[in-house]
Amino acid sequence: MFKDFKLIAGRPVYIQVKDYMKHLIIKGALQGDQKLPSTREMGVLLQVSRNSVIAAYEGLEDDGFVYVVKGRGNYVAPSAPGTVKGSPRIMDWKAHLNGHAMLAEELDIMKYGIRAEKGTISFTSIAPDEGLFDLDNVKRAFMDRMAVEGNVLLNYGYAKGYKPLIDYLHQYMEHKGVDMKGKDILITNGFTEGFNIVLSALNRKSGHVLTENPTHHTAIKNLKLHGFGIKGIPMERDGIHLGELEKALDEGEYDCAYFVPSYHNPTGIVMSPEKRQSLMKLMAGYDIPLIEDGFNEELRYSGSHVSPLIATAGAGNSVIYLGSFSKVLFPGLRVGWVLADQELIYYLESIKRAQTIHTSTLDQSILYQYLYNGNLEKYLKKARAEYKRKYELTLECCKQHVHYQALTGDGGLHLFVAFAEGFNTRELLEACRAQGVIFTAGEMFYTDGGGQHTMRLGFSRVADEDIRKGIEVIGKTAHKLMG
Amino acid sequence: MFKDFKLIAGRPVYIQVKDYMKHLIIKGALQGDQKLPSTREMGVLLQVSRNSVIAAYEGLEDDGFVYVVKGRGNYVAPSAPGTVKGSPRIMDWKAHLNGHAMLAEELDIMKYGIRAEKGTISFTSIAPDEGLFDLDNVKRAFMDRMAVEGNVLLNYGYAKGYKPLIDYLHQYMEHKGVDMKGKDILITNGFTEGFNIVLSALNRKSGHVLTENPTHHTAIKNLKLHGFGIKGIPMERDGIHLGELEKALDEGEYDCAYFVPSYHNPTGIVMSPEKRQSLMKLMAGYDIPLIEDGFNEELRYSGSHVSPLIATAGAGNSVIYLGSFSKVLFPGLRVGWVLADQELIYYLESIKRAQTIHTSTLDQSILYQYLYNGNLEKYLKKARAEYKRKYELTLECCKQHVHYQALTGDGGLHLFVAFAEGFNTRELLEACRAQGVIFTAGEMFYTDGGGQHTMRLGFSRVADEDIRKGIEVIGKTAHKLMG
């Protein structure tokens, strides 16, 4: 007994002794009413100071594991936690789950997605390259903010968000050309929470939503989870097909539209400024809320300036802009924002409060201080240069090795490849995986069951050498499959 | 022009110049195709270095605000963001919102709750006293963790949660006596998200839920938002009335039960160990999932050890335990957890991923490191002593000044007072507010429209002197109103 106790670094010794004793009591190695060794003996047995044992025994008494008999010593409590037989009820949980839970699991690509074994070259991720993170600036932002108002940051915040961050984003969006009059901002746990809060607030008449086709698979998932039917509009080289959109608008009824104008996921297309104008002119004729996914628009590293749709809408109030620095900065900080008409935000704030009370104040305040300190500009310069380099390398490799029919992607963190109709990228994926290379088959981005001949290549987290090797494998394998 | 430029500290000068120029262009003070002063002139005008102006002008060009004519200088872009007239669509947002959004707003007590003016003595909060926060240990936890794996923490994490924290909580709950076999943990953005995720997964047959009456108003709100009817069971001095519960179980059908066994909100009652055993024995006879709110059980500073219901359930799998350190440690860190049967957690994980992807890794890792470093134990010792002192003071003041009919609260951060039936605490609140003292009228905690004669007194954030003054005002005013 007491031979398997091992100290680890950085955790107080008395707590380790206490944890160890609890473990022995719970697993039954020490039994009810059994006398424990004296604190002096125990110190010798475990090779720790007697004071640590004294503190551990006190903690054990506080927590109900031990009782003291004055003048005689410490005894294991017969009713110690984990030692009393309870009243078990064994439930069949599946019988208690609803269709929503089943659908969430079914649409959860993380549960059914392809797994990369160690050493696999993976083009599946479009998360940022963590090697680019400027950790020292994040640390400084944390320490700066803690020094200013640490106590406040750790207590409850406001559902609407951390005021300095809201004010910062207000100016930030104004400088993107947004007419902020009558608009307001709600901070959320990233894009995803913002999207869900908006969907849970919108009136449902037709039960149908307009999107680009293909489109962001998380959006497809959440639209389905909210019970919406999806009408996807095909893409052209410079963005959504306006003629098809107009036709759909004339023929059907929609509760809202969801568009990704910049670095559209998965095609990587940036909608042209002219098309943005035409799109908003067209949409102005319909009473349909437009959800704009501001995804990665900060990453633009080539071409002329483009304004978000909410800026193109001028003084209008029909656009709900969902912003996030996640893909550009740090996905680990779960901070996004909804920018929209202030009346809408007023209601969304109540839903946000009901769902998660508020977004981590620490995340918000670190992000705010990081932005205030001027780090975003510096970081973007570095990140854009690096991603541009990788983009051009990937593009070059694709041109060299892949017999594609169409390739899109105006920068960002990924490219989108379409082979000839009839080609199946799931088969290609299986064949490539066997050779240690994976990517995302395009099917999951399609709203109409199409896209079997497409694939998305995320290059942000792939090393140059692996980009070269991986694309060559994909190209050669595709060529072989084409026969 | 350029006279109202003012430098602020800590933000790079060139960004401030850039922001300032953007502002001038957007508000129309600088017009399309207007030539900007040379970088040298501008440096003099704004009293900043020429290099800062050069960097600012470059940024303005990148962002589409300025164009350069070689050899001639910088000009305002005629299509600069914010200067182009868009295609506005003005929408009546109320017509696009559904009943859920309306109900969320209607039940949002922050929107309709009483506001405290500066100087008001407020007994409304049951948040922790931020003066107790050990900021240095939080900073150390942050720096420790960043040093170990900063890059990883800032990139995407897992929906299920941060592995080291999950492992820690696994042992933590085991040491509370929970049989962890077949159980698993999901990290959430505090209690509230956990509660909502569970409710959104549960099968609905009867559409009714069992709770204590009164109970936590956030739970009432979210149960209503999920469309559940609530059957409240009255409280006794040592917890829920088992006879009434049994009657309800016999007479009705329920999709789940929600109980708060420790420091029950609002009554402050800690359910006795014996009652916990009897409750679980009773519940074991029914196929009803039991949601246990682990609220504040860490705060216990008197009386014998009590086990959570999920421990009392032994090897059973019917209890869903919702844990959080928010009220005990730092509410600003939005971290809670769901401990339940692993099959249930498997589905809840997919819902969590769909709703918010994952909880802030930074929050989780700071909390983990803070716990690992052994700070919780130290902090609890300090916090318990302080809250105990305040509890006893508040209790003493109530006994001295308030003619109550019943007073409950076994510690924690609040007391609950019931006057004679017929007395109205909303009227009392109005009269006290006029004298600069507020509290929470009890009505909102009742599931059946009752409780008009009750009030909750949160003392955690009230100074000793204010406790004395405030309770005296409440007592005298109540006495006067009783006539």
Automatic annotation (TrEMBL), chains A, B:
Keyword presence, DNA-binding: yes
Gene3D superfamilies: Aspartate Aminotransferase, domain 1 (3.90.1150.10), Type I PLP-dependent aspartate aminotransferase-like (Major domain) (3.40.640.10), Winged helix-like DNA-binding domain superfamily/Winged helix DNA-binding domain (1.10.10.10)
SMART domains per the UniProt record, alphabetical: HTH_GNTR (SM00345)
Alphabetized UniProt keyword annotations: Aminotransferase, DNA-binding, Pyridoxal phosphate, Transcription, Transcription regulation, Transferase
InterPro entries: Aminotransferase_I/II_large, HTH_trans_reg/aminotransferase, PyrdxlP-dep_Trfase, PyrdxlP-dep_Trfase_major, PyrdxlP-dep_Trfase_small, Tscrpt_reg_HTH_GntR, WH-like_DNA-bd_sf, WH_DNA-bd_sf
HTH gntR-type domain segment(s): 11-79
UniProt xrefs under PANTHER family: HTH-TYPE TRANSCRIPTIONAL REGULATORY PROTEIN GABR
Name of the protein in its database record: GntR family transcriptional regulator
Organism annotation: Paenibacillus glacialis
